[in-house]
Design a protein that fits this description.
- The structure is a single chain.
- The chain has 14 helices and 4 strands.
- By secondary structure, the chain is mainly alpha-helical.
- The chain has one domain (24-310, 365-374).
- A hairpin with a 5-residue loop joins strand 3 and strand 4 (234-238).
- Helix 6 runs antiparallel to helix 10 (282-298).
- The protein is globular, with a radius of gyration of 21 Å.
C-alpha cells in the first residue's frame, strides 16, 4: 500500500527510489512492527486486565505456574496486528507469496482466537478440540497451497535436500504428494510452536531466530542484484545461483514479512519476558507457527526447516513420545510433556530453561545458514 504510493511519487522526489530495494523495506518493516508493538502494548495489557482476560492454568501443570493464573493472555492478537500492518505497508501487494503467507497467518490466528475464547469462556485449559483445530488448519493450508498451482502447476514442486546443491540433486514430487506434504509442514510447524509456548518468552525467542533465518533464505532465493559497471551498463548478480539455492522469483518480498515477524516479536518479548506481563495465547502461537511453515514451503526449505525449527520439532516429538508411550505401556518417557516442563520438574528455574532453549535455537539457525556455504 505505502510502497505503491511511494512509487507513484518517486518521479517527483528521487530519494524515494530507495524504497524499491527490498533490503531497505526489510528495515522499515521491522522498525514499523517494533513501533506498533511498543506503543500499543501498555494500552493493550490494560484493556485485557480491565476485561479480566486472564490465563487459565492447567490443573496438572507445574505448581510454579499456579501463580500465573489471571495473567493477561491473547497478547498474540497484538503481535498479529503488529505483523500484518507493516507487511501490508512495505511489501509489494501484487506478490502472490505475500498474500499466501498472510492468509495462512491470519487464518491460523483466527483459529487460535476461537481456541483462546473457549478457554476463557469455559474457564478451563481445553479450548477448541484438537481434531477441529487440525481440520481447520488443513483446510486453510489446502486452499492456499492449491491456489499456488492455479497457473498450470506454476509453483515449484521440487524437494531440495539440505547441504546439497540445488542443481546437483533434488526430487520432483507429484502434485498429489507435494500438496499434502506442504500442508503437513505448515500445520505441523504451527502446532509445534503452540506446544513450545509454555514458559515466559520461550516461544517468541526461537520464532524470531527462525524468522531471521528465513529472512536470509528468502532474500537469497529471490534477489538478483544489479551492479553498475565502470564502463556503463549493469551486471546482474543472482544470489541464489551463487549460493546454489533454488531460485524462486519474487520470494524475496517474504524477507519483508519475516522482518515484520521479528519486529513484532521484539516488542512482545519486552512484556513477555520473565515474569511475563502478558501471554501470547494460541492466537499468537498458531499464527506465528503457520507463518514459519509458510516461509519454509515458499522459500523451498521444507527439509531444512527440520533444522531451523528443530527446537519446535523436539517439543512436538516429546509430546508424541509421551502420549504414545503412556497409551501403549502406561509409562511416561518424561516427567511431564512438552519437554520444557520435564526440565521444570527436574528443578531447573524457568529463566534458565528459556535462555538455554534460545541458545539451542540460535545454534540450529547457524547450522542451517552454514549449509549455504557447504552447498
Amino acid at each position: 500500500m505505502l510502497l505503491w504510493l511511494i512509487q507513484e511519487m518517486r518521479e517527483y522526489f528521487p530519494p524515494l527510489r530507495v524504497f524499491r530495494y527490498v533490503s531497505f523495506r526489510i528495515i522499515a518493516a521491522m522498525l514499523t512492527a517494533m513501533a506498533i508493538s511498543f506503543v500499543l502494548h501498555p494500552w493493550f495489557i490494560r484493556r485485557l486486565q480491565s476485561r479480566q482476560i486472564g490465563q487459565v492454568v492447567r490443573k496438572d501443570g507445574p505448581e510454579s505456574h499456579f501463580s500465573k493464573a489471571g495473567t493477561p493472555t491473547m497478547g498474540g492478537s497484538l503481535v498479529l496486528f503488529a505483523l500484518v500492518i507493516p507487511t501490508i505497508l512495505w511489501t509489494d501487494l501484487s506478490n502472490l507469496y505475500v498474500w499466501a503467507a498472510l492468509t495462512v497467518t491470519v487464518s491460523y490466528g483466527i483459529i487460535g482466537f476461537i481456541d483462546d475464547y473457549k478457554k476463557l469462556k469455559e474457564r478451563n485449559s481445553k479450548g477448541l478440540p484438537g481434531r477441529y483445530k487440525l481440520l481447520f488448519q488443513f483446510v486453510v493450508a489446502s486452499v492456499v497451497m492449491l491456489s499456488l498451482f492455479r497457473d498450470e502447476l506454476s509453483f515449484d514442486r521440487t524437494l531440495y535436500l539440505p547441504f546439497v546443491k540445488a542443481d546437483t540433486f533434488s526430487i520432483v514430487l507429484p502434485l498429489a504428494v507435494f500438496v499434502p506434504f506442504a500442508i503437513l509442514v505448515i500445520a505441523g510447524t504451527s502446532n509445534a510452536v503452540n506446544l513450545t509456548d509454555g514458559l515466559d518468552g520461550l516461544a517468541i525467542g526461537p520464532v524470531m531466530v527462525a524468522a531471521f533465518t528465513y529472512l536470509v533464505l528468502a532474500y537469497g532465493a529471490g534477489t538478483v542484484l544489479q551492479i553498475p559497471m565502470p564502463g556503463g551498463g549493469l551486471f546482474q548478480f543472482n544470489i541464489a545461483e551463487y549460493l546454489r539455492l533454488p531460485h524462486v522469483a519474487g520470494v524475496n518480498e517474504l524477507a519483508v514479512f519475516a522482518a515484520a515477524i521479528i519486529g513484532a516479536g521484539v516488542g512482545f518479548l519486552w512484556f513477555n519476558t520473565f515474569p511475563a506481563q502478558v501471554f501470547m495465547g494460541d492466537v499468537g502461537s498458531l499464527s506465528l507457527g503457520g507463518a514459519l511453515g509458510m516461509l519454509a514451503v515458499l522459500t523451498k526449505n521444507e527439509l531444512l526447516s527440520l533444522i531451523i525449527c528443530g527446537l519446535f520439532l523436539v517439543e512436538a516429538l516429546s509430546v508424541i513420545a509421551q502420549t504414545t508411550s503412556f497409551k501403549l505401556t502406561g509409562k511416561r518417557v518424561f516427567r511431564m510433556a512438552p519437554i520444557h516442563h520435564h526440565f521444570e520438574k527436574l528443578g531447573w528455574q524457568e529463566p534458565k530453561i528459556v535462555v538455554r532453549f534460545w541458545i539451542i535455537s540460535i545454534m540450529l539457525a547457524l547450522i542451517a545458514l552454514a549449509s549455504l556455504k557447504v552447498r
